[in-house]
Amino acid sequence: MTGLARFIMRGRLQALLVVMISVCSVIFSAIGAAGVALVTLRRGEGNGAWLLLWALLPAIWVTLQFSDPTHVALLLGAYVLAVVLRRSVSLLLTMLAAVAVGLLTGFILLAFGGDLLQNLAELLGQLLSSWEAQLKAQGSVAEDVTVFSLPGKVEIAAMLGLANAATSALCLFLARYWQAALYNPGGFGEEYRELRIPLPVTVCLAVLVVVCLALGGAYSAWARILVLPWVFASLALVHARAAMRPGSGTGMLVAFYALWIVFDAVKLMLVLAAIADSHFDFRSRWRGPGASPPAAPGDDRDSE
User: CA 239, 244, 248, 252 torsion: positive or negative?
Assistant: First the structure.
């Protein structure tokens, strides 16, 4: 993967070749978005915007042909997050920008993608109804019990917004990893492991989440987008703990991700840990009194 990043950074034509080929693929479209983010982080917003505009051409074609705007949304989301990170040099602000990307994606879909949302809602409703019928036929569920609530357009829009925000953030992380690997080895790891949501931000996010959940119905679907910064902060907390255990850190991470993927309770516990970390600052406690945090990674950006 580092070789691909090195090829992208050789020049505009190489970056354009990789990004445009990737965007035309369903499987590798995230590579194209990460390429745009990498050029933006390293070369600046102007060079990133030039690459983005060219990459949008095949992405728009895919949208028109298959009624699938995810390629366009992912490119724009990754570019916006890369601009925020380059200007602020703050993963915290970038994670808050990811929330804005997710909310904006959902609102735009509600405003202009009614047909797409309706089709997805009907398709998902058919899948859930079929699954429920199978469960009832097997006797696992009583005939008069409704297992799944069918999602509406608002819930689908919120789900797509969350997916775009999370994927855009992951593409940015890949680009930032590439950038550090090429120009400042180890910089991204140190930077990410220090990601922590300050208490005032946690309080604001918590209030918004509670309001969405209290309103209920379709509003509760938007709460998942607001939780996204805590999710990434909780993973950073686990990586920070693993880095303090050199002998068993890798095994700890492998076991953790296996549990995290399978069990929703682990996800909830980690989010709660990230919320608690806003107040208790677990990293400082783990380092012990008098210990200083790792030095901030060097600036590995090109000046424009």
Answer: negative
Could you give the residue range(s) of every CATH 1.10.1760 domain in the chain?
Answer: 1-120+159-193
What radius of gyration, in Å, describes the C-alpha atoms of the chain?
21
Cα dihedral 49, 11, 178, 294 sign: negative
pLDDT in tens, 249-259: 778 888 899 99
Among residues 44, 164, 52, 51, the alpha carbon closest in space to that of 97 is found at 164
AA identity, residue 197: I
Q: Most distant CA pair in the chain: distance in Å?
A: 66
Find all residues with CB under 8 Å of 119, minimum gap 6, and list them. 67
Fold topology of 1-120+159-193: Arp2/3 complex 21 kDa subunit ARPC3 (1.10.1760)
Query: Structure pTM?
Result: 0.90
Total residue length of the chain: 304
Alpha-carbon 124 to chain mean position: 23
- CB 210: neighbour CB atoms within 10 A? 12
**pLDDT tens, 45-66?**
999 999 999 999 999 998 888 8
At residue 247, φ and ψ (nearest 5 deg) are: -75, -30
Q: State the pLDDT at residue 140.
A: 60
Helix (H, G, I), strand (E, B) or coil at 301: coil
